[in-house]
From TrEMBL:
One of its GO terms (biological process) is NADPH regeneration. Pfam families: GFO_IDH_MocA, GFO_IDH_MocA_C. Residues 6-123 form the Gfo/Idh/MocA-like oxidoreductase N-terminal domain. GO terms for cellular component: cytoplasm. It comes from the Eukaryota. Transmembrane segments: none annotated. Residues 142-345 form the Gfo/Idh/MocA-like oxidoreductase C-terminal domain. Coiled coil: none annotated. This is Gfo/Idh/MocA-like oxidoreductase N-terminal domain-containing protein. One of its GO terms (molecular function) is oxidoreductase activity.
Length: 350
């Protein structure tokens, strides 16, 4: 069945817009057509426009100009997240649906304001949390149902520091205004898949540490977590360690078995399922290699937003503002717990 493409206006033509969102739109040209751009530095907008085949008269010089273009069906904003709330206010003023990058905001105060603003409008507004659309997450859900009551989990995302990483060099990351810096910039992805699979956090006890002395703030978490379901577990996150192999895994323990997600191989993650209530009753391990699409969930998030915009239904957005609020609130609670010598902190709700 053919579909009518939506016309997309890109706000913020930095690394992620150029290397990830634009290619994902171009691969899905039956659904999307990038028609306009705006960037603070115009020369970068012009370079992006060439790649996207956007004519120069659609390279705008202000946010108001791109927002008021009647030909633009929705805005995709990829900015440092301290600008999310003010960009959202413009989108509401111009009645434009918008998808914007994670985390939802730079502070909890801004995150609350974001949710309150989106509660008052029927416009589809999404947070671009692509990890919620990873194929392994959908597959894992089927197996988690097979292992009985979930009692606990261990979740690890650790990796070596890099001196040359393309993201680390960006000035807004080096002088981070978003709470926790890299701990929320990258850490919300892990919270997103953890909570999507096992449900919301209730409270946390955590310690942070600073590995890279050049970092402004702590760059690794070691946390114990209690979920609203009653299950408990550990979450370890840090990408600034000394030489170590990247390790991304989540093991979920049930009374009738366990499910292990191994995400080290980005293109072919693996799920291992062990069924049985004890060693003696254990069935042979099941191993599934998952085909991950090469946009790493971005195409899925865009198609979900396409549906919300075309059906004018904000309620079908997977990464909606309330969900993204919870992801940031979990990071905030971990930071507060660490500041309070690891004492247990309840995760803020809205
Ligand atoms: N989902 C993911 O896996 C993922 C991965 C990477 C990044 N991201 C997100 O994508 C967004 C952009 O990140 P990036 O890595 O692409 O960073 P980037 O290359 O530094 O791009 C940032 C963009 O924001 C613009 N900008 C910066 N300060 C601004 C201001 N005061 N007013 C208006 N525009 C401003 C920059 O414009 P100039 O050209 O003028 O500097 C640039 O276009 C961030 O929210 C980040 O969290 C998500």
């Amino acid at each position: 069945m053919s579909s009518t493409p939506l016309n997309v206006g890109i706000v913020g033509t930095g690394i992620f817009a150029r290397d990830d969102h634009l290619p994902a739109y171009q691969k899905n040209s039956e659904h999307f057509n990038v028609v306009a751009v705006f960037n603070r530095t115009r020369s970068k907008a012009l370079d992006f426009a060439k790649l996207a085949n956007v004519p120069e008269d659609k390279v705008y010089s202000t946010l108001d100009d791109i927002m008021s273009d009647p030909h633009v069906d929705y805005i995709d904003a990829l900015l440092p997240v301290q600008y999310n709330v003010q960009t959202l206010q413009k989108a509401i003023e111009y009645n434009k649906p918008m998808i914007m990058e994670k985390p939802i905001a730079a502070t909890m105060e801004q995150a609350r304001e974001f949710v309150e603003l989106t509660d008052k409008t029927d416009l589809p507004i999404a947070i671009a949390e692509n990890w919620l659309n990873l194929s392994i997450v959908y597959e894992a859900k089927k197996h988690i149902q097979r292992i009985g009551k979930i009692v606990g989990f261990t979740h690890t995302f650790t990796g070596p520091n890099s001196k040359t990483g393309k993201y680390k060099a960006t000035s807004w990351r080096q002088h981070a205004e978003n709470l926790g810096g890299s701990l929320s910039d990258g850490g919300v992805h892990q919270i997103a898949i953890l909570t999507d699979l096992l449900g919301d956090f209730e409270s946390v006890s955590a310690f942070t540490t600073k590995v890279d002395t050049n970092d402004q703030m702590p760059d690794a978490f070691f946390a114990s977590i209690k979920l609203k379901s009653g299950a408990v577990g550990n979450y370890t996150y840090g990408t600034r360690f000394g030489a170590t192999k990247k390790s991304i895994s989540m093991k979920i323990y049930g009374q009738e078995g366990s499910v292990l997600l191994q995400l080290n191989n980005r293109d072919a993650p693996v799920i291992r399922v062990n069924i049985g209530d004890c060693k003696e009753n254990a069935k042979e391990e099941e191993v599934y290699t998952i085909n991950q699409d090469d946009t790493y969930g971005i195409a899925g998030e865009m198609l979900n937003f396409y549906e919300a915009v075309t059906k004018k239904n904000k309620n079908i957005i997977r990464a909606n503002p309330r969900t993204a609020f919870h992801h940031l609130a979990c990071i905030d609670a971990m930071l507060k717990s660490s500041d309070d010598n690891g004492n247990n902190v309840k995760v803020e709700t809205i």
